Amino acid sequence: MARRGSGLRTAIKVVKAIDRANKQAARETQRKEKARQRAEAQALREHEKGVREAQRELKRQVRQQQSAAKQAFKNALSNANEEYQDRCEERAALRKQFIQEVLR
Question: How far apart are CA 80 and CA 74, in angstroms?
Fold first, then answer.
């Protein structure tokens, strides 16, 4: 006839199974938390990268605008100088013409 146990072994097995399940759940929770933290850190890095790129683009646009304004100023100055030279030449031609008229 088989000996009947007091159920202690079964109770120990159940307690050990519960303990293993508890440890596994704690490891899984920790794994999920680390994954969440990594995802959050990645999102933060991507956001900061986007901000830096936007700042770089803004600086580039400002430099382009300043360069365009400087070039426009140079062009306007050059055009004004050419117009001045043209007026000077016209006046010189008129003076010569007037002198020629007077001398005749």
Answer: 10
Distance in angstroms (rounded) separating the CA atoms of residues 11 and 88: 114
Question: For the chain, what's the residue count?
Answer: 104
Across the range 75-97, mean pLDDT stands at 96
Cα(57)–Cα(61) distance, rounded to whole angstroms? 6
Could you tell me the pTM of the whole model? Answer: 0.55
How remote is the C-alpha of 60 from its chain's centroid?
11
Encoded tokens for 33: 């938390």
Q: Measuring CA to CA, how many Å separate 74 from each of 42, 52, 70, 79, 103? A: 47, 33, 6, 9, 43
Please give the pLDDT value at position 34.
98
- Dump the DSSP string for 9-72: HHHHHHHHHHHHHHHHHHHHHHHHHHHHHHHHHHHHHHHHHHHHHHHHHHHHHHHHHHHHHHHH
User: How far, rounded to the nearest angstrom, does the alpha carbon of residue 55 sit from its chain's CA centroid?
Assistant: 6
